Amino acid sequence: MTSFEFVFIMHLMEIILDKSNELCQALQQQSQDILNAMHLVSSTKSLIQKFRDDEWEKLVTRTKSFCETVNILVPDFNAQYIARIGRARHQHDKFTMEHHYKVDIFYVVIDTQLQELDNRFNDHTVELLSLSTALDPRHLRTSFRIDDICKLVEKFYPKDFQEYEMMKMRTQLEHFGYIRQLPEFQNLIILSDLCQWLVKTRKSEVYPLVFRVVTIILTLPVSTATTERYFSAMNIIKTMMRNKMEDDFLSNYLLVYIEKRIANKFDIDSLIKDFQDMKERRSQF
User: Residue ranges of the HAT C-terminal dimerisation domain (predicted)?
Assistant: First the structure.
């Protein structure tokens, strides 16, 4: 921890994490505005790339200044780099200390971050997420992109809809567009609100194809972090020791685990009494 290399890596990671923090925080929100998230992806890539191209000298200066302040030895960047392999030391005649820090650490770390962003948010994924915003209530109040919804279904979910359903989709969407004028629709904020409202008002039965698209979009982890948390909770609950748990018991167990804030308000005595009243017991609790 008192080596120059450790301090250099810590400063490097601090800057990278700072530039990607807005995107990370946005993706952890309970319900995500996907279109704005895609803009954050683009800006994060640009900032990290700019850091790679223009801020090497600034990083080195910052690291050296910190090391001098706390009396950590600063290496000569023009000297030959000597690698430590186990207990042995191996000298690279063609590599300098600057080459080691700039190429082997600085470029490698940043390129890995950029590659990770490209893998997770490639053009195919960005198009999918951008099209899925067409049914976000916040966007529906200003514009209704029927073409985008039809394209989303035809390109990304062809196996979830029959051919005749795809043909019927546009007409049903045109009818669905008129419910945006209803007063209660104006209170909807996120996609899950729209889904619940469609079920509550039984409009899910009137617009079944639209409702199916909404539920499909909700399965995208980036559209709502809550969905992702549910799958994570399942991995915690159904362990190797509980691999024979039946579906009904698993569902009830997950409900209590996920809604733990509500479950903590339950009175234990009332739960015991309700359980006891379900049927006669051999002994009293």
Answer: 190-260
Residue 85 β-bridge partners: 88
> In this structure, how many other beta carbons lie within 10 angstroms of the beta carbon of residue 37?
20
Task: Taking each helix axis as running N to C, give the angle between helix 191-200 and helix 208-218, from 0 to 180 degrees, rounded to the nearest 10.
Answer: 140
Give per-residue pLDDT as tens, 129-149. Answer: 778 778 888 777 778 888 888
Range of the domain at 53: 4-121
Q: Domain check: are 37 and 95 in the same one?
A: yes
How far apart CA 34 and CA 132 sit, in angstroms, is 8
DSSP 81: E
pTM: 0.56
Rounded CA gap, 265 and 261, in Å? 7
What separation in angstroms does the CA of 34 have from each of 85, 93, 139, 176?
Answer: 46, 50, 11, 22
Same domain, residue pair 140 and 74 = no
